[in-house]
Amino acid sequence: MNSFVKFINPIEHLGSRKYSILFSLILSFAVVLLSEIYSLYVARDPNAVGAYIVFFNAALIVYFSFRDGIRGGLSATAVSVIYYLYIIYSRNYSGAQLISSLETTLVLALLYIFISMVIGWLKQKIDQLIEAEADEKNRLQSILAQLPVGILIADMNLEVVYTNKQIEKILGLKIPTGYKIGIDKPLVNGTWNDKPVTLNDSPIVHTIKTGKPITGREFAITRKDNKRAFIQISSSLITNIRGGNIAGVSIITDITKNKELDMRKDDFINMASHELKTPMTSLKLYVSILKKMQKDISNIKIGTIVKNIEHQAGRLERLVADLLDVSRLQTGKLIFTKQKFDLNKLIRETVDTAQSTTSNHEIVFRKSKNVIVEADRFRIYQVISNLLTNAVKYSPKSKSISVDLKKSGDEIVVSVKDRGVGIARDEKSRIFEKLYQVKANKEKTFPGFGMGLFIAKEIVKRHKGKIWVESEPGRGSTFYFSLPV
Ligand code: ADP
């Protein structure tokens, strides 16, 4: 029954371009046959059906044009017109009646053809559009299915309407369409920022509820087979052509391999720097013994060599210390011991140490009145020292470097200004990233690993302060950092 209704309902044939004429021929023929039987054997009057059959045929032609396109309409038209001609012939019309019925048949034929053409053409156009849209959808779906990332689309009621097969691989669980996020189980079981994931942490839930996209939120999850994995999820809204929100899409990437590599790298750096630290300490010790002995030997050549060894050992020591700090920051193992101290004094010491390493620069410090802060003294020293080392390093052709300390409201701001090479606009935010170095022709001129500013930023951040830079290429840079008083 269901398939019979489907067969005769023209709406069910929208989008299908299989246009048959058989059904239209058979049904039209059956109708005219019934009409003929009715007039001749039931009503026993050859003209009993009369004008009714005209409307009946017109209705059939509309129906078949809509069901089977132009062909359907025209085949029903053909049966009707042949039937009219048969009536004229079989009823023996003659004279004026013959002419007028031929004329009527001609007019009706033209009308039927017109109806078949217009409705049939519209129906075929609609079919083409539906097919083109279906093709487009298929194309899109096969692209989505091939992507190496997981894709999940949910409607505005958080009901899943599409997932590709990578989702199952990445999350380790099947999410069928119709799955209601939040009402059924939470989408991912795991942690975000070391806390168990709640429904609102889920990017797609957040995006659908607030309209705001999320980029690259990282989760640690435990898959069904108890395997730990790391995934990154981004989400945004999908809008229709009128700009209304219709769904949310999540793009899920498996970043387990990168994470593991990252962790291995951190472990390696940690281990390597610990290993390097011990020989470095002994090296420094031996150098200082040599230095003492050298006073007795009073050989100038050996004196220079010892000084160079000391200088190089110092550089290596700083590098190892930076490596260790980066690794500790990464693993949250950098510990701060806060104490109250006068920042003026600390800056003075740092400036003096930096000044002793360069005779080409003059570092001027303008102190402020009595500034007592509560912070990790050594780590703040490290920040200022790093800014000063950079100021010296990146201003090879200019002499002046100035350090300022200003109190404004409940913060103090330290600035280190040089008139050196400066930093391009788009590099300014990136220089604070881990291992980031500005790459230009000068890459060989300035040694370094790009760790200093990253460490400085993390130290300042953990003191609830800010660090930033103002700079113009070729004119110099001023680095600022603030600390709450
Ligand atoms: P490193 O100096 O070891 O490369 P940093 O993290 O200290 O690493 O600095 C990152 C980048 O920022 C440097 O490579 C350099 O290009 C830029 N930079 C830092 N300080 C200055 C400065 N005072 N003037 C110009 N560029 C600077």
H and E order: HHHHEEHEEHEEEHHEHEEHEEHEE
Termini separation: 83 Å
In the sheet with the most strands, the strands line up as 2-1-7-6-5-3-4
Main pleated sheet = 7 strands, antiparallel
The residue ranges in which pLDDT falls below 50 over 5 or more consecutive positions are none
Radius of gyration: 43 Å
Please give a quick description of this structure.
The protein is of the alpha+beta class and 485 residues long. Helices cover 51% and strands 19% of the residues.
Task: Explain this structure.
The structure is a single chain. The protein is an alpha+beta fold and 485 residues long. Helix content is 51%, strand content 19%. It is built from eleven helices and 14 strands. It has helices at residues 2-8, 22-42, 52-90, 95-146, 165-171, 203-210, 256-297, 300-330, 343-356, 377-393, 452-462; strands at residues 150-155, 160-163, 190-192, 195-196, 214-222, 228-239, 245-254, 339-342, 362-366, 372-375, 400-408, 411-418, 466-472, 476-484. The strands form three sheets. It has a seven-stranded antiparallel beta sheet with strand order 2-1-7-6-5-3-4, sandwiched between helices. A five-stranded mixed beta sheet has the order 9-11-12-14-13. Strands 8-10 form a two-stranded antiparallel sheet. A hairpin with a 2-residue loop joins strand 11 and strand 12 (411-418). Helix 2 (22-42) crosses helix 3 (52-90), helix 7 runs antiparallel to helix 8 and helix 8 crosses helix 11. The relative contact order is 0.05. Adenosine-5'-diphosphate is lined by residues 390-391, 394, 418, 420-423, 431, 436-438, 448-454, 477.
